[in-house]
């Protein structure tokens, strides 16, 4: 019989205490994402923000800076981002359902938020944590425009017309391409799901000529 492993209570307690101390000593979001707006550096890490982000950082605002000035910290309100408004014609926004504020932050402008994401007009069924809350491009959607965002009907996705080749067949085609000395980029093959061919007399004549050229004339 295998020897039963002895439980070391003191060592297990010491491990839990070390894990708890590491958890308590890790920097909070208000320290981690603090920013010196003159040098554009984060004091904790000393890293400088990308130059392309300086304009938004100076003119725009973070999500929790908006939530801190709203009733019930913005629960039930809708928020979008500047990049979404510029890149997509379909509405993309978060509807906040839960907020956990970091009360140790000076202006209570840090924390975690949860909500239902609608991206390019398609809403998700369950709430999840809002990502990129520290970005400086968040916008509050006015109440008189909320229904306009919600009434959008996404267009149906076009039917799938092509599917990728099976892995083994694709590997054989890739080997043939290299064997033939193909130096250019390998064009990914795709199988059509539907082949629109008019079964005319010319089509069958062309098929017979192609078969004769490949197999030869019977003797």
TrEMBL record:
GO cellular component, one term: mitochondrion
Domain of life: Eukaryota
Keywords for this protein: Ribonucleoprotein, Ribosomal protein
Pfam families found in the cross-reference section: MRP-S34
GO MF entries: structural constituent of ribosome
InterPro entries (alphabetical): Ribosomal_mS34 (IPR032053)
Protein's name in the database: 28S ribosomal protein S34, mitochondrial
Organism: Austrofundulus limnaeus
Upper taxonomic lineage: Eukaryota, Metazoa, Chordata, Craniata, Vertebrata
